[in-house]
Each structure stands twice: as C-alpha cells, then as structure tokens.
Design goal:
The complex is a heterodimer of chains A (about 575) and B (about 300).
Chain A (H helix, E strand, L loop, with lengths): L1 E7 L9 E8 L5 H19 L9 E7 L2 E7 L3 E3 H7 L6 H19 L16 E4 L4 E3 L16 E2 L16 H17 L16 H4 L5 H10 L11 H17 L10 E2 L6 E4 L9 E3 L2 E5 L4 E6 L5 E6 L9 E3 L2 E5 L4 E6 L5 E6 L9 E3 L2 E5 L4 E6 L5 E6 L9 E3 L2 E5 L4 E6 L4 E6 L9 E3 L2 E5 L4 E6 L5 E6 L9 E3 L2 E5 L4 E6 L4 E7 L9 E3 L2 E5 L4 E6 L5 E6 L9 E3 L2 E5 L4 E6 L1
Parallel strand pairs in A: 9-38
Antiparallel strand pairs in A: 1-2, 2-4, 3-4, 5-6, 6-7, 10-41, 11-12, 12-13, 13-14, 15-16, 16-17, 17-18, 19-20, 20-21, 21-22, 23-24, 24-25, 25-26, 27-28, 28-29, 29-30, 31-32, 32-33, 33-34, 35-36, 36-37, 37-38, 39-40, 40-41
Chain B lengths: L1 H8 L3 H6 L12 H11 L7 E9 L9 E11 L4 E12 L6 H24 L11 H19 L5 E9 L2 E7 L3 E5 L5 E3 L6 H7 L5 H5 L6 E2 L12 E6 L5 E5 L1 H4 L4 H9 L4 H14 L6 E9 L1
Antiparallel strand pairs in B: 1-11, 2-3, 3-4, 4-5, 5-9, 6-7, 6-10, 10-11
Helix pairs in contact in B: 4-5, 9-10
Classes of the chains: A alpha+beta (about 575), B alpha+beta (about 300).
Chain lengths: ~575, ~300
C-alpha cells in the first residue's frame, strides 16, 4: 500500500543529493478516520526524526497532500537482504550472517531502550533490512505504513512467516522483534523463505539439516530466538547479541566443527557366514530355525539359522534366484532349469516337480490351495499345491520375472514387456495396465491400492479394482526392486543408487538415501529400521522414518538379493558366494 | 516378525485390510466399521452406483454469493464393466478482496473443465488413447492451471478449493484453504478428510491455542494458503477409499463453521433422500444465523 521513490533534493542544486521518498495512500473513506491516520503518521515521523543510530536512516522531512502522505529520508545505497539472499549462489557464509545479526541486535537494543517508551520495530524481515555499500545493515520501513492499512473482513489471506505467534493476540513486545530477527536469520542462512512454509514451522526444518555448514552454536542461538513461548527466547536483543558474540568468538577462533555422524562401518562382524560355490543373487527364507536359500551353484541350501551350520542341499539343474516358500513342511522354489521344485523341508528330498517352458525367476506364492508363479515362457502358472498338477495357465505378452502378489482374491504381476496384469483366481483377466518399460518389480498392496515399480523409472500406485493410476512417483532411474510398506511409508531402491521413502497417500518423497551403486535388492523393515542391499556391496541399515544411516555392512561383492530379519538377526546373501547373519 | 511370517506365507493382505479402519481410539468396532471392513474384503465383483446432490444458499447476512460449486456424476467404461465416476468441487472466494466470486467461479470451471477433458474419451466411449497422467497428476495440473488463471485474470483475489474425483471406490482429493471434505458414516462417525490451511488451525496444531481458544480466536478467517495467492501453490493431494455405506461431504465454512457435527449428522440421517439431506443442511446453517454463504455436496455409493 505505497511506493518508495528515489528522489533528488533540489535544495542542493550544485550536488546530487539523493533521498528516498516513501509515499503512502490514505484510503479510509471516513474523513475523521482519515484525519486520525494522518495525525498518527505525523506523530511517528516526529518520533523517528529524533533517532540517531548508524543502522537507522535519517528522516529529513514529511508532508501530506490530499490522500497522499510522504516521508523523506536518507537514501541507502545497496540491496535489501532478501535480494542478497536470492542473488547468492548457494548459502551465505555464516560469518557474514553472524556479523549482520550482531548489528541487527544492536539496533534493536537501541530501539527497545528508547525512552520514555520502547520502540518496537514490528516488521523485522529480510526485505526491511538493507545492506549498504559498506556491507553494513540499515533498517528500513518502520511500521509507519501500517497505520494506513485498513482492516478487511471476511475470508482473507495472511502471509506471516516472520511474525511470532503472540502477535495474533495483539502483543507487540521487544521479544516479538527477537523472534522475527530469528526468523530473518533462519531465512538468510537456510535460504528457505518462511512465507512459503506453514507459520511457526521452523522447528520442523532443522537448520543444519538444510545447511550443514552452519555451526551448532549459531543454530542454537537462532533456535532460542525462535521459541514459541516468549519466555523461552532471549530476554532482550542485548542478550541475543551477547550470545552471538560468543558464537563469533568460538567459530572464528576454532576451526569449524566437523559433522561427526556416529556411524559404524566395516567394523560390523557377522554373527556367522556360510560360503556356497557360486553367486547368491536371491533372497533367503526362514522357517522353524532353518534358513533356505538358492544359489547359482544350482543348489538350494538349508542352514541352521542360529549358527549357519549346513543341514542339507538339494541340486537343481540350473541357478536358483527365486525366494523359497515353505508350506506344509515342503519348500517350493523355481530354477533356471525351467522347473518348480518341491522338496521336503527337513530332509531336502524331492516331493514333486512341475515343468514350464522357460526359466523361472518369479518366486512362488501360495493362496487358496494354489501356487502362483510366472515363467519366461510368458505364462502365469496356477498349480495345485498338493498334487503339482496345473490348474490353469494365463498367457501374457512377455516373460514374467515379477513375483505375483495375491491380494483381494486377485493375482497381480508384471511382465518384461511392460504390462501389469490383475487376474482372478479362475485365471480370468480383470484389468491390465501398461508401463513404458518392463515391470520386473513385484507389487505390494495396502488398502485398495497396488504399488509397483518399472524399469521406466516410475513407481506406480494403481487402483486394485480397476487399474487406474492413482499416482506416479518418478525415480531417478528404472527399478527392479520391490516396494515395501510400513505405516504410510513406502520404501524402494532404484538403479540410480538411491533408496527412496515415499508417502503413499500423497506420493511425496519423505527422504532418499544414496548408495554407491545401483539397487536391485528390495528393502526389509524390522522394528524402526529399514534394511537394503546395494550393488556397491553394502547392506545398509537406516532409521526408516528419517533415512538416517545406522550402520552398514560391507560384503566382498554386490548384494542383489533382499535381506530378511527375524528375532533381531538379519540374513542376506551376496554375489561373493556368502550368506551372512548380522545383528539387526 | 509377524511381517516376516506374512511374507513367508504369502498372506500379507489380510492384516493390511484392517489398517484404514485404525482410528485413534481403541474401542470395539461398530457394526458400521465391521461392515466396511467386509466391504474391503468383498472387493471383487459388486457393482456400485454413485449418486450425489447439492445444496447452496447465499445465507442470511451476505448480499451476494462468493461460493461456487460443481457436481458431476456419471460412469466410465472400465475393462470389465463400467465404473462410477464423480467430480465434486466446492470453492469459497475470499471476501475483502475484489472478485471473490470471480476467483471461486474460475477455480471451479477451470478445474472441472480440465478434469472432464482428460476423461472425455472414457465418459463418451470414444476411441481411447489411455490417460498418460495419474489421477493425482490430473488434479495437480488442474489446480495449477486454475491458480495461474486466477492470478492472471483476477489478481489479488483468491479462493479456497476442495475437489473430489471419485473413480470406482476411491476418492482423489485436491485441497487448498478451509473448505472441507468429510467421510460421514450412518453409525455417527464423522471424519474430516482435509486439513484447513488456516492460521487458527495451524496455531491449534502447534498447541498454541486450546480448542476453546480456537473457537473464539479473532482471526478465524485468516487463510495461510489460497488458490490465486502466492507464487507457488502447494495443494494437498491424496487418495482415500470412498466411505463405504456412508457419505462423502464437501462444504464451505458457511456450513461447517456454523453448525455442529451432531447437527450435520442429524440433518443427513433424518432425511429420506440425498436431496432432502442437502436441503436440511442448508436450512440448519441458515437457522443458526446464516452468517456466510453456504455450499454443500453430498455423494453416496449405493448398491
């Protein structure tokens, strides 16, 4: 509600004396109110004219003309802090911001100490702080303009950002200015404009998370200034200045504190490990104290989960990458020898076999007396769990590597031609969805949605009933990893090396964690941790709500299979031929 | 560990189904909750019909209407059978700004037009090239387009907007401001689906205002986000199950700010039809003084 002009003072015709002229327009319709506004303005102008501080522009004159009122004041060469923040490449240096902060505390202390009544600045924000040609701060736009704003009724917008909560109870105190200064400094050092964030949400954006170069001491000062409760803030701008001086002394004298993350790595020793004769690319299964895992040496191994003791092995005629499934004392798994093998879980003796016309990479699922799995022969097979007879086959348009999901009495799976199918238990197509590249990932479900990733680099949420895409989340690259859900979070890895955490309601990224190579492994959740392997050879344990690294374990080669966790022990296989058991 | 067993036996879907019902309190499930859980489990083959009705009034104290409403109910062809389709939008233009009604009207028309354009070929069974965007992306781009239009054509004005796209048995919501969407169940549960983007709500969430203080807060009408306001508009967009056997309600603060949840429930459950229910709601808000424009949409899946 007003403009600022750059003007030349013609009382000094022989030199160029620049002044700033602030124009305010009096829009009040009632003549008495209009007059009151002008009187308030003139009273404030008189007050400001008596101030004498380097960081406050001098007032030269004021006048009113019809509905316009003008204030003539010192012209400040420079840029306002908001422009400085926006123009900077990257973060402003902390030392610079601290020195401005000290100057701002100084001028606020001067205003608050004004007699007989303290002057409250009321509107501390980056656009009201000029940085002059010497690099010093000057406060501009004293609350004067406020008198000219008439209240509006009805639903309206407020752009808060820098104002403290108590302002809405009509309190304007020196401590309110301390809060706004804290907000201004937060914006300056984090580059996050609080007007674009929910009000009073600073605590949700820890400074050092955004800008790790900020010292913890400076962060602590800003946090104190931003306390909700005025009593928890600095008692005065002077006290805040003292605290800042302390920080300046420390960070200036001592070398910067490195952000030491208490992360153990390499130091993790497995509880036990077991060496097979070739690569392990698949995922183990655990049943009644025994670990079952397939290997590229064509064997399925049964190991004692407690100590890794070998119990038996069963030789197929091709590599085994599928995850074994234990049901009714039998172990079910597919192999590159094109067969589904069923062996006794205690003895490893073959019970029956089922032949397909393609290699089997899709892991079996059992529901309703049927075993469901896909094959490279492009069929989804439904086999009787007791007799091993085919019940039906469903022909698709591509090889099936994806493990079917059985949910809502439907079977969901993807194909290498990029189709995604939903079948009922009779093998009839309910719907089909087309991705742009293969769907190797195995779907997960929650409520009425199905979640699956594709090599097209998208994580899809599909309506379980009709296949409509509800949302899409873009991954950096394609993914063969299968999503896992905990609470309202979904976890998945991708070929760009990131582990992603996505909010399944809104499709917003919660966090992402970078590993050193692509991720084929699917995450596992146990208690409040998430475990996932990477082709970089490490198994990562992250706090699943924040993505913070807890520990990592380095195998001697890539980990492409998925970990499983049981009774505080993580089991995972690696391309280095080993199965490892680690403390979760 | 339970998780592990579930994976092992491939029966992971069963406990998951209970989750959406996991309300904050732990009380025995009501018949309504049980039947809606059953509803989840019988996802397979029942065909549902979507019906909806609208109520609107300028209220008792305003001389013009700054609310706008759109309600569109149809079916679209799915792969097996036809699927219920519904688009319901309520927008409340901001008073004190010029063009409050311009903003709300534009928001509703532009969003509605944009969304129906995307579904045009499904609605009229024309040769289809499949929709490239997800439902949430459709909502997002539509709300962004409306935002830009309002900024361009009615600068300085703003509006709330709460839009619900029903497809099958799920609802995708796009929401800015303090109009609201509710799930209402005949057993008396009322869940507010949306979160107000208002200063009072924000202060309440931060524990700065108690419920009583919030009721009497002088700045109840201050929004912290509105369509048409600010460079970047971040709308809340999410998808939830349609309230089975219950109602989806969208309304402006002229309704929810004036009558209690109890009165809302009574107005709906005592009405023989949806039309009557909408009329009852509007009458109740007017009987309570009608301080603001009143808009309400009710939708129900039957059969």
């Amino acid at each position: 509600m007003g403009s600022v002009y750059r003007a030349r003072d013609l009382h000094f015709p022989n030199v160029v004396k620049l002044v700033a002229v602030k124009e305010m327009i009096n829009l009040a319709p009632d003549p008495i109110i209009r007059q009151t506004i002008v009187q308030n303005f003139e009273r404030e102008a008189n007050l400001l004219a008596t101030l004498n501080h380097l960081a406050i522009p001098r007032i030269y004159d004021y006048f009113s003309h019809n509905e316009h009122s003008y204030l003539v004041l010192e012209f400040v060469h420079g840029k306002d802090l908001e422009t400085v923040i926006n123009d900077a490449n990257g973060f402003l240096p902390e030392d610079q911001v601290i020195s401005w902060a000290i100057q701002l505390c100084d001028v606020l202390a001067y205003l608050h100490g004004h007699k007989p009544d303290p002057i409250i600045f009321r509107d501390m924000k980056p656009s009201n702080v000029m940085i002059n040609h010497n690099g010093d701060v000057v406060l501009v736009d004293f609350g004067i303009a406020k008198t000219f704003q008439t209240g509006s009724k009805g639903t309206m917008i407020g752009t808060e950002g820098y104002s403290p909560p108590e302002q809405y109870r009509g309190e304007a105190t020196p401590i309110a200015d301390v809060y706004s200064l804290g907000a201004t400094l937060h914006h300056a050092i984090s580059r996050r404009d609080p007007r674009l964030e929910p009000p009073f949400s600073f605590a949700e954006r820890p400074l050092r998370r955004i800008n790790p170069n900020v010292s913890s001491e400076f962060e602590a000062v800003i946090n104190t200034a931003l306390q909700y409760n005025p009593a928890d803030r600095f008692p005065s701008a002077g006290a805040m200045k003292d605290a800042l001086m302390n920080v300046a002394r420390k960070t200036g004298a001592l070398s910067k504190i490195t952000s030491a993350l208490p992360v153990s790595s390499g130091g993790i020793k497995p509880l036990w490990s077991f060496k097979c004769e070739d690569e392990i690319r698949g995922t183990p299964a655990l049943h009644q104290g025994t670990i079952y895992i397939g290997c590229y040496d064509n064997n399925l191994y049964a190991l004692n989960a407690a100590d890794g003791q070998f119990q038996w092995k069963y030789a197929a005629e091709g590599g085994i990458v599928t995850r074994p499934l234990i049901f009714d004392n039998n172990v079910f798994f597919g192999s590159e020898d094109k067969r589904l093998h069923v062996v006794n879980s205690r003895t490893g003796k073959m019970v029956w076999m089922y032949y397909t016309d393609g290699k089997i990479y899709s892991s079996p699922r059992i529901a309703d007396g049927h075993i469901f799995f896909g094959s490279e022969d492009q069929d989804l097979h439904a086999v009787n769990v007791n007799t091993g007879r085919a019940i039906w086959k469903f022909a698709t348009d591509g090889p099936i590597h994806s493990t079917p999901l059985v949910a809502n009495e439907m079977i969901y799976f993807g194909t290498e031609s990029g189709s995604f199918y939903a079948l009922d238990f009779r093998g009839e197509l309910k719907w089909r969805f087309q991705a742009k590249r293969p769907v190797t990932s195995s779907p997960a479900s929650k409520g009425q949605s199905i979640y699956v990733a594709s090599l097209d680099g998208t994580l899809y949420s599909l309506d379980a009933k009709n296949g409509w895409a509800i949302w899409k989340f873009r991954l950096g690259k394609g993914s063969v990893s299968s999503p896992v859900i905990a609470d309202d979070y979904m976890f998945i890895g991708a070929a760009d090396g990131f582990i992603y955490c996505v909010d399944i309601r809104t499709a917003k990224e919660v966090w992402r964690f970078k590993t050193e190579n692509q991720i084929s492994s699917s995450p596992a959740i146990y208690k409040d941790s998430m475990y996932c392997g990477s082709v970089d050879g490490s198994l990562y344990c992250l706090e699943y709500r924040t993505g913070r690294l807890r520990w990592k374990f380095e195998a001697k080669a890539a980990i492409t299979g998925s970990p499983i966790v049981f009774d505080d022990i993580v089991y995972v296989g690696s391309i280095d031929h080993n199965v490892y058991a680690l403390f979760a | 560990m339970a998780d592990f067993f579930r994976k092992l036996f491939g029966k992971k879907e069963e406990p998951d189904k209970l989750k959406p019902m996991d309300m904050a309190t732990t009380a025995p499930l009501s018949d309504q909750q049980i039947s809606s859980i059953m509803g989840f489990q019988n996802l397979k083959s029942e065909t549902k019909q979507l019906i909806a009705s609208v109520g609107q009034s300028v209220g008792k104290q305003r001389d013009h209407n700054e609310d706008s409403v759109l309600a569109l109910t149809s079916t679209i062809s799915g792969s097996a059978d036809s699927i219920p389709f519904g688009l319901y939008i309520v927008a409340d233009g901001m008073g004190g700004h010029q063009f409050g009604e311009v903003a709300s009207n534009a928001a509703v028309r532009i969003m509605g037009g944009n969304i129906t354009k995307k579904f045009h070929s499904y609605l009229y069974n024309l040769p289809t090239q499949s929709l490239q965007e997800s439902l949430q992306e459709v909502m997002e781009s539509s709300i962004a387009e409306a935002h830009q239009y309002v900024q361009r054509e009615a600068p300085g004005s703003g509006t709330t907007v709460t839009a619900a796209l029903v497809l099958g048995q799920q609802v995708t919501i796009a929401h800015v401001g303090d109009s609201r969407a509710y799930s209402i169940f005949p057993d008396g549960r009322i869940d507010t689906i949306t979160r107000d983007h208002s200063l009072v709500k924000r202060l309440e969430e931060l524990g700065h205002l108690s419920k009583d203080e919030a009721e009497n807060f002088p700045h109840r009408n201050v929004l912290i986000r509105a369509l048409g306001q600010g460079e970047l508009l971040e709308a809340d967009i999410f998808t939830i199950p349609f309230p089975q056997t219950g109602y989806l309600m969208i309304c402006s603060d002229g309704l929810w700010g004036v009558i209690s949840e109890k009165e809302i429930l009574r107005a709906i459950t005592e009405a023989p039809t949806l039309n009557r229910a909408c009329q009852n709601l509007v009458d109740a808000a007017n009987a309570a003084g009608g301080p603001d424009n009143i808009s309400v949409v009710l939708a129900q899946l039957i059969g």
